[in-house]
Amino acid sequence: MLQDFETWSITHKHYLPTEFHSIYNIIDKHCEEYHTMPTIDDLKFAIRDKATKEKLYAIESVDDIDIHPFMLLQYLKNEYTQQEILLSLQKYVDNSIAFESAEESLSHLHEIVLDVESRVDLEDPSESMQSITLHESNEDISKYVPLGLNTEYDYDIQFSPRDLVMVGGKRGAGKSIVCCNIANSVYESGKTAIYFTIEMDSRSILQRCCAIATGVPFSRLRTKNLNNVEWEKVATWWANRFINGQEKLKSYREERNFDKFHTALKTDCELDPNRHIDVIYDPSLTLSKIKAELDKKVKIGNVGMVIVDYINQVKRSAIPSKSGQYDWTEQIEVSKTLKSMAQEYETTVFSPYQTDASGEARFAKGILDAADAAYTINAWSQEDSCMTLNCVKMRSAAEKSFTSTMDWETLKIGPNTAMNPKEIEASAHKTGEEINDI
Q: Which pTM was predicted?
């Protein structure tokens, strides 16, 4: 390994037994100073401590092993991972409560996996400059997704399946409405949206998505106060969620009994695994719960986006934090982990965050560090019938903001561009100046 700088660069100190940490430190210091791997002789001159020097002599005395350094690294990593898992399981067994529920036990096991995984590199090293291609494959490019809130904006800006996209807003600004619109856009594109909700239950999310998709007023949809045309739209949307749902829709059109129609669908049909809105409601959502759900669903489904509504409410662990859920370090770690999940599962992750009166992220400005793109919401007043998403961060393109039409009855955002009140005022002022000039 002393001859392989690339392998050394991905070798973590904690992979090695504790007694070799001192030698690791000396090698690492040499690499930082001289940007080359040291020889054994270099190390002999650098080491002053007798015990450390004896360890070096012991390493030197070992016969050359004809194994590639990368394979040796894999051995170290595997051994470290197995030991850490066994130690964590032992601690869990020693400290677990005998009467834990099944959900609590599984949650703790997922936390162990998440903790060990955070200390082990599971991805292969980046491609070398010789083998890397200029463009992604057509398959990877096909996984790019737009926000689906504005047609003009979507033409220019789409997001990679490894991106974390965030949107900020004050209480009541419409963060969940934005999430529902995006979930519906993903669904209409023929993909699945996995939607984690913390404050609103699954039915409320589906009702919003249905109103957005059908153009039926949300308030009347929720109370079942619909006319025949509206019931037809809702039934058609609901049937499309299921395989062979169209057969049940024919029966509905004969009897016009939605409750009977719904019972027939859930009894006789299966949800389309490749295209649906999968809502997971958990008031105590943790990172391990998100990971457990994604492990089950991303690989088998045609997932276009993961939505986490919203990031400030997600906990790192079911174990209470000493500093509380709203500690800035806690939230930054949640943000970083969501970004890691986007990369691991190769699926875009979208999550709202809460802002203060000044428009800055509440509790922790650092939560935006991991984001590839971030926006803030300005919903104006309902009479203005528009919503602006101001871009405050964009890694891969220009920071372009946009304003879309907003129908507050159906909760539908876009897809058309609108002028916000400030733009209307500026346009009127400009027109007045032109008239005066004439």
A: 0.78
